[in-house]
Amino acid sequence: MTFIDFCSGIGGGRLGLESCGFKCLGFSEIDKQAIKTYKAFFDTSNELELGDLTKVNPQILPNFDLLISGFPCQSFSIVGKRDGLDNKEKGQIIFYLAEILKIKKPSFFILENVKGLLSHSKGKTLNEILKLLESCGYQVFYKLLNSLDFSLAQTRERVYFVGIRKDKKHNFYFSKKETKRALKEFLTPKKENVFKKDSQSYQTFLRFLENKYNKDKFDLMQILKKNFLVLDTRQSDLRLYENKIPTLRRDRQGLFYVFNGELYRLSGLEALKLQGFEKVKKIELKIQNLSQNDILRQCGNAMSVNVVESVVKDLLYASMDIGA
Fold first, then answer.
1. Is 73 a catalytic residue?
2. Predicted confidence (pLDDT) per residue in 109-121, tens digit
3. Which of 24, 73, 136, 299 is catalytic?
4. What's the whole-number mean pLDDT along residues 185-203?
5. Residue 206: is it exposed, middle or buried by C-beta count within 10 angstroms (0-12/13-18/19+)?
6. Residue among 132, 39, 77 at smallest CA distance from 300
7. How many CA atoms lie within 13 A of 75 on its CB side?
8. Nearest 5°: phi and psi at 23?
């Protein structure tokens, strides 16, 4: 079974598909640093590197069985401007994907987007997207899934769309998972990631604890006694999480956790593990020359590998004659 990885990011969707026996024919991505990470994880030497999706001519693509894409979500997210399909740069990527579906007619597709898509414009945007995908000749199924329920200690709600070409006439169901793993399994505290108390950043953090939102609400000495307690400093107010990490986001890197009385910054490797990339062989070696900040940013945009793998298994179960 073959697929093409559109808006690939660093390959979370690809890794989920490959773990189920699918073969990648090519990928499309415009972020140069994400491409660098993608190529560190996967051998792309015999694959099509398609670049900008909006410039891809569907007619020249090889035949393939499945299209996967985490189409850009900023325009639908509750942390964005929520301008949806009116955002010509990002919101309308879905139309380019639809054009490929119409012309190449792969048997299946898997698309991913943010939870905010479900409520955007009071559901009108979701209905537009469903109608568009159905007009391409597909039965469309969708469900909000949380990475936390798929053996990943990260709260990450994303809506997944599964398309099955109408002539296949398969019934599809998202299986219920709710499989948990302890956060400490994903964290590897290292000295280089300690939040040093003599740093200027730490002094800024102490002042943050004394602002009008946090003053008298937290006892740092007590916080530092609880191993693997997570601190999220992205807002004006401090947020604490036990046994899970809040949603990794492209522009959020103010995440810390406690270990042996010290605060540790979340590392790129830990973020990758929380997205399911521990399935990449020798991953620590492959990222040693990559920027930690780039990896953290890229993890915020990535698909959760375990969730994709589960969706693909559901698809395979629904269509045992998937190659027909």
1. yes
2. 999 999 988 987 8
3. 73
4. 95
5. exposed
6. 77
7. 16
8. -115, 130
